[in-house]
Specification:
single chain; mainly alpha; two-stranded parallel sheet; 14 helices; aa-tRNA-synth_Ic; ligase
């Protein structure tokens, strides 16, 4: 009993130390103290409507999206439903997933007053520009992109939509003359296609599209809790392999308790030699807002079983208010639809002049 109480106090001590470290190292200044917005820059990023995001989505993209609202003068975030239908979708499920993703983004901190949040299919200029850009893109180039290789399988077969998916991505970005695009390491090649497409168009018609620059995520890729060699994914058949932002505290504790680690008890960071424990360290550092080294230092003396509880508590602390806000927003679908409708109007105000100029340049009018 005495040993148990000591362990509880030890875990609580680690959590308190990390909170103090977070205040010291921080995740950036408060909104009113943020650096001056970068004038003339425009950020675009999209996310597929897969319903409620998981921990990897949050740490790899959404968390940084919230920060970018403060740093750039114009930010657009699109729920890319056109991309989602490259794979079969149930219509009713897709409608709900779009609203669930909208609720999730708002709950995580995306502010419709500081960014433009909209549904891709509601701005028809995306597909119209996509057709034009497709006429400047070679088939061999598309065959070598990871999206086609990964989803077409060994038979190299798939829909035309899947094949031209990266062209529509380029149109998404260039339609708004975006200067910066937040990307993960696995998305860089698709951004390179958008960059090359801009250069090809500019060479033929004059300096028109900015060549967008990547904003690489600083967060390490979050892995599956059951297979730390694979990324966390909604499609994982093992439901305990991923953590959704709306999971209850009990669910989160259970999933971390069953997370795959190894037989070494101490907490270290060695992604190649100890991928399971290292994945938890990466998660812990990202949700706590401190460095990996600081997390490891603060966890000295804990075995992996105790450390799993520490990480679970840190994730619970982050997700509890988000979960409550998601549920509140999901209960008001009319509001969510209105947010998307207003966002589409704002996006169109930016897209229509650009697309008209493209039509003029290529000779449509």
């Amino acid at each position: 009993m005495a040993l148990h109480m000591y362990n509880v106090r030890r875990i609580r001590g680690v959590i308190q130390n990390l909170k103090a470290a977070k205040r010291t190292f921080g995740t950036g200044p408060e909104p009113e103290k943020q650096v001056k917005q970068i004038a003339g820059s425009r950020v675009f990023s999209g996310i597929q409507p897969t319903g409620i995001p998981h921990l990897g989505n949050y740490l790899g993209a959404i968390k940084s999206w919230v920060t970018l609202q403060e740093q750039y003068s114009c930010v657009l975030y699109s729920i890319v439903d056109l991309h989602s239908i490259t794979l079969p979708q149930d219509p009713a499920a897709l409608r709900q997933n779009i609203l669930d993703m909208t609720a999730s983004l708002l709950a995580c901190g995306i502010d419709p007053e500081r960014s433009i949040l909209f549904q891709q299919s509601q701005v028809s200029e995306h597909t119209e520009l996509g057709w034009i850009l497709g006429c400047f893109t070679s088939m061999p180039r598309l065959r070598h992109l990871p999206q086609w290789k990964m989803k077409s399988g060994k038979k190299n077969e798939g829909s035309v939509g899947l094949f031209t998916y990266p062209v529509l991505q380029s149109a998404d970005i260039l339609l708004y003359k975006s200067t910066h695009v937040p990307v993960g390491e696995d998305q860089v090649q698709h951004l390179e296609l958008a960059q090359d497409t801009a250069r090809i168009f500019n060479y033929k018609y004059g300096d028109f599209f900015p060549v967008p620059k990547p904003l690489l995520s600083e967060t390490r890729k979050i892995k599956s809790l059951r297979d730390p060699t694979a990324k966390m994914s909604k499609s994982d058949p093992q439901k305990i392999a991923s953590i959704n932002i709306t999971d209850t505290p009990d669910d989160i504790i259970l999933k971390f308790r069953k997370a795959m680690t190894d037989f070494t008890s101490e907490v270290t960071f060695d992604p190649d030699g100890r991928p399971g424990v290292s994945n938890m360290v990466a998660i812990h550092a990202a949700v706590s807002g401190v460095t990996v080294d600081e997390v490891v230092r603060q966890s000295e003396g804990l075995d992996t079983a105790q450390y799993k509880q520490v990480v679970a508590d840190a994730v619970i602390q982050t997700f509890s208010p988000i979960r409550e806000e998601v549920e509140r927003l999901r209960a008001d679908p009319g509001y969510l639809k209105e947010v998307l409708s207003q966002g589409a109007e704002k996006a169109k105000e930016l897209a229509i002049p650009v697309y008209r100029d493209v039509q003029r340049l290529i000779g449509f009018c």
